Write the structure tokens for this entry.
Amino acid sequence: MTARRSPSRPSPLLPPETDCGVAPELMDYLFAESPDQEPPPAPPPPPGRGVARQVGDALVESRLAGMGDADVRSTLARKLCRLLPDLPPGGADTVSAAAIRALEQLARDHIVRVREALATAIKDIACAPPSVVATLARDVERSVAEPVLRCCAALGDEDLLDIVAAAPAGWALSAIARRHSIGAALSDAIAGSGHAEATGLLLDNDGAVIAEPTLDRLVEQSAHHPDWREKLARRPALPRRLALRLADFVDLAVVEALRRRPDFDDATVAEIAATTRRRIDWAEASDRAETPERRAVRLHRQGKLDETALGDAMSWNEMGFLRTALTLRARVAPEVVDLILDAHDPQAVTALVWRAGLSMRCAMQIQARAAGIHPRAMLNARQGSGFPLSPAEMARHLERYGIGP
């Protein structure tokens, strides 16, 4: 449909001080096709005359009512959104193209409440124009972007990944983490953002697909985020090995959540209970007259200073035991162990654990619990359990701290 300006119905004149996000003259192009734009070779059938008339009426009425009025533009936004499901997709004809151009301009309106009205109206429309929702999703105003980030199905994963990569405000990450459906790549991006609240919301979201390597990292990082542990314990399809690793934390609520899962067999439940019992025994066997450092020396002499003992000590935050154990097993000076752990150097910590004859899993625990390395800076295992550095690379990292072959 093509509507032209009628001399008998002039546009209202707006005073200079009018709240002007869109000038009336800028709406003229919505009523005529661009002269240098070639029409598509075979356009689809136009929408029903009723829908076309409603779109045209909405545009004309809004223009005549005064497009300098934010309330008029807000009303136009809501009307066009209601008509979107009945229009051909992608601006395939003159009417739908005019509607989309109007929505694109409204998404960039200078007045926040106009953009809010558009965001609220469009968030539940699956056929919303991608260009419009992408603009709204990147809006600096929370009241505009949040409903679109959280609810709009028309907002694709590519846009969402770009938004997460741009390190947005925490509320934006939390809104994305609450989406009804989240793919593995987007879940990984949210978990890798370092935002604890958004990651916790992701773990609570049963509609989020979280790949095993991502869960692996989150289990290790939960050393610094106790509130994640019970959420992880309730995750659907939690791998058995990660459940056992969660049981390493002395947290009765987590253990109880693991034991109640219907998808674990009796052997797994028994192993979880045994791990918990061993952790409690470790604390009860502690002699007040024996410091954690002396205990490490005694176990070393007995040939019992193994990875299980280190895990038990870390579960009770016995860092003195851990530092002494690394000193003894890696055969280095205590001050060198302190220097490496206090430097927050993930490569050097991993190399030290490797020299001590311990696993990459243990290296990840020590990075998180003893070296205080930020989750985004941690060195992760290769293919789930392997060291990500070659022996030569690890030897070079140790040399920087004066540790020779």
Remarks:
- The radius of gyration is 30 Å.
- Residues 1-49 have pLDDT under 50 and may be disordered.
